[in-house]
Amino acid sequence: MKQEALSIQEQPGKQPLVIWVIFFATIISFMGLGLVDPILPAIAHQLNATPSQVSLLFSSYNLITGVAMLISGVVSSRVGIKWTLLSGILFIIVFSALAGSSNEISQIVGFRGGWGLGNSLFIATALSAIVGLSIGGTAKAIILYEAAIGLGISVGPLLGGELGSISWRGPFYGVSVLMVIAFFALLLKMPHVPKPKAKSSVLDPIRALKYPGLLRLGLTAFLYNIGFFTLMAYSPFVMDLDEHGLGYVFLGWGLCLAITSVFVAPKIQARFGTVKSMCAMLIFFALTLLAMGIWTESSTVVIVAVIVAGLFLGTNNTLITTAVMQVAPVERATASAAYSFVRFIGGAIGPWLANKLAETYSSHVPFVTGAIFVLFAMLVVALGRKHLIHVDSISH
Questions:
Q1: Contact 269, 277 (CB under 8 A)
Q2: At what angle do helices 299-327 and 212-234 cross, to 10 degrees?
Q3: Of 87, 148, 248, 325, which is the most buried if we count CB atoms within 10 A?
């Protein structure tokens, strides 16, 4: 039996068909994040909006995604994994199409919130579904999930740049069409998964945060997501590139993120442990943001730094997601919802804060501020090592 289990783990491609259907849908779901990046300056220009107003496209999306994480488990435990995933996709289809049909920035911001609701139902359930249904253990499942995220984030900007060069509305309609494909793929191929015997409560994720390890990982993600979305939502305004150019830059960033999340993170984790590896990646990311803050006027430095940042973010994303699945004695879906609730709030603050700081002070300040938040994230991990030590023992 041990020999058989080992051979399965060594062949991560041998997964049930349902895993690849969810994998495909997850790719398309996360394309929605990167698709918007190349068109941020175009939306600001054509709708006479300030960068901080345009950044609310990220803020409303992340805020609603985070808050709705509290109900994702409630919905999933009552209607089942399959219909929770399908409901989330339906929300994304409708609200992305509505955003593309809008003529005011306030309307797009509002519809992005609805899109975030669908995204929360989908991504929290997709992670627990992949972990629960895949072969080869939690670590292998999370690598698959992170690979889907990386592919979605990397391909999204390229498609966003191509569609955005035709019209800023194109990427919104593109997401809607792609999610229709994902909807029917899941509807036809995903089997019925039994509902959990115990019904989840809205308070379950909040209660899960009483575990110090999970709370620390949530706070870490909250802080470093401010830096993450400073890069995502502010850097397009200082690179001085058109939609095509921005698409290619974020394609490079996303490819670095995807490659490191799948191939590099497991090796670094096995050699150095989860906590040390996370601290190192957060320091490297902070230094990258600091370099962007110092040499903001150099488009070349900013472009290279954005791409290089993908290396550190991809590695850290896999490390922290793996740790979240193992750090607290609660259901994986509950742990994911609790962690995501906290981290997406950081993702809501970061985009608006970065652009507001640039409008109030200078173009350098957002990146330097982002670097400081990421360093604080590193300290939260480093100083809370005693609450995470068992994750290191599991990873070894």
A1: yes
A2: 160
A3: 148
